[in-house]
Write a sequence for this structure.
């Protein structure tokens, strides 16, 4: 079967690889010169190290993603915890959620009981775990409302839940759909203790996507970069082709000002793995106002801001630390992840659901990150910040509020042969890498089923 996949992020690559493995003839179109969509990286010209467009974290429960990485022969890029440990620091010093290798959810119980916190706080956290396992699914509630109903006070939220939930959902508990955190919590913490452990990349996400691309191409798949999809042709209710503009790819062609070339690919199936806002423009006018396409305009984006910082000495002694009561929530030692432990130290700070951060200047955001270090890390005394970069992703994810759950479309569409993929589709998960990969696999299954 001839299949065209539009979009080279995790969803598009997962769909393309799955279909190519099943011996279909797959062509993948990516509008940019790099793959990865909203989870990619580039090589920093000054330091020579990879810089992600926002540090993306995986967990052991990402079974579809980790299987995809292993099939592509890229497991060496993974740095996997043996057991879940999340380090935090605040005015009282460091503490950790340290979960031993016990059967789930006993590992989480042990981790919560070992927290440096009053007993009432630990008991509230245990109560939440019981509600997640045995209680009703919190459909239609915000996460803050669900926290209230399960007796989660301000202390336990500040200590444990709010920063974790905001990082997972890229939305504050006051706005986020509780059902998404409920499902993620159950998958990560209540099934197998290894599902909750953190999984990092030893290189930037661009390297991972290049590995996935080589695996796909090695099996006969074709990737056309800088190929801007312009329209899905629909005939008698069926997708039959994709028209696109092939822009120059090589540096010589780009410097020479070579014009784009109009092209067309016939297809028996099309998988659209582009952002939700780009889908309607690909469709004929008479389809844009029909469900589910007409609802896509009501999905909103949620921003992530990251600050990359280089210090002249080593200050942070962990791969990842949560920063409580700060403008920046998490800091990652990217140099350590990439196998380098000495100076200069390359740190990445993340601000999720960054509504308040987006209007701030780059200088203000860099100063906020530096202030967090000076507040909590004594080794910052006398340390110089040698360089900073600020990266803004204004629509890093869809805004995962309860209203969005009713708008997320399935993979199947009313146009025969056209399938949707992306973390914003109805995966049952928040906007995560795992959600994107599962959506691509689901679209591939529908292509196979016809």
């Amino acid at each position: 079967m001839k299949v065209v996949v539009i979009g080279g992020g995790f969803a598009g690559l997962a769909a393309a690889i799955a279909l190519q493995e099943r011996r279909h003839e797959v062509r993948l179109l990516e509008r940019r010169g790099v793959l990865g969509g909203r989870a990619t990286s580039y090589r920093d010209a000054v330091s020579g190290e990879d810089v992600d467009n926002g540090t993306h974290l995986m967990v052991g429960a990402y079974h579809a993603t980790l299987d995809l990485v292993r099939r592509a022969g890229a497991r060496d890029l993974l740095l996997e915890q043996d057991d879940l440990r999340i380090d935090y620091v605040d005015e009282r010093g460091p503490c950790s959620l340290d979960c031993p290798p016990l059967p789930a959810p006993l590992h989480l119980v042990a981790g919560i009981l070992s927290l440096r916190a009053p007993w009432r706080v630990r008991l509230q956290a245990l109560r939440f775990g019981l509600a997640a396992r045995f209680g009703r699914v919190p459909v239609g509630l915000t996460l803050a409302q669900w926290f209230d109903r399960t007796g989660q006070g301000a202390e336990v939220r500040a200590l444990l839940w709010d920063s974790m939930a905001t990082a997972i959902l890229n939305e504050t508990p006051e706005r986020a759909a509780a059902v998404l955190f409920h499902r993620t919590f159950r998958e990560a913490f209540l099934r197998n203790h290894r599902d909750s452990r953190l999984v990092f990349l030893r290189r930037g996400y661009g390297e991972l996507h290049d590995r996935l691309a080589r695996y796909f191409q090695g099996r006969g798949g074709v990737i056309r970069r800088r190929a801007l999809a312009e329209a899905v042709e629909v005939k008698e209710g069926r997708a039959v082709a994709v028209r696109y503009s092939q822009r120059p790819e090589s540096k010589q062609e780009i410097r020479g000002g070579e014009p784009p070339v109009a092209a067309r690919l016939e297809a028996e199936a099309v998988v659209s793995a582009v952002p939700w806002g780009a889908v309607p423009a690909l469709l004929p006018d008479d389809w844009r106002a029909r469900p589910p396409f007409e609802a896509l305009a009501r999905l909103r984006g949620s921003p992530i801001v990251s600050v990359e910082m280089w210090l002249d000495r080593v200050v942070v002694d962990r791969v990842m630390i949560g920063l409580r009561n700060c403008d920046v929530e998490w800091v990652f030692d990217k140099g350590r992840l990439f196998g380098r432990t000495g100076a200069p130290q390359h740190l990445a700070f993340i601000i999720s659901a960054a509504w308040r951060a987006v209007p701030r200047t780059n200088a203000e955001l860099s100063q906020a990150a530096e202030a967090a270090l000076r507040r909590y890390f004594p080794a910052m005394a006398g340390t110089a910040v040698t360089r900073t970069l600020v990266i803004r992703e204004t629509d890093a994810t869809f805004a995962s509020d309860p209203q969005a759950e009713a708008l997320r479309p399935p993979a199947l569409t009313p146009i025969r042969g056209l399938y949707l993929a992306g973390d914003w589709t109805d995966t049952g998960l928040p906007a995560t890498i795992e959600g994107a990969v599962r959506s691509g696999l689901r679209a591939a299954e529908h292509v196979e089923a016809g």
Remarks:
- Residues 82-196 form one domain.
- The radius of gyration is 22 Å.
- The longest strand covers residues 385-398.
- Residues 433-449 form the longest helix (17 residues).
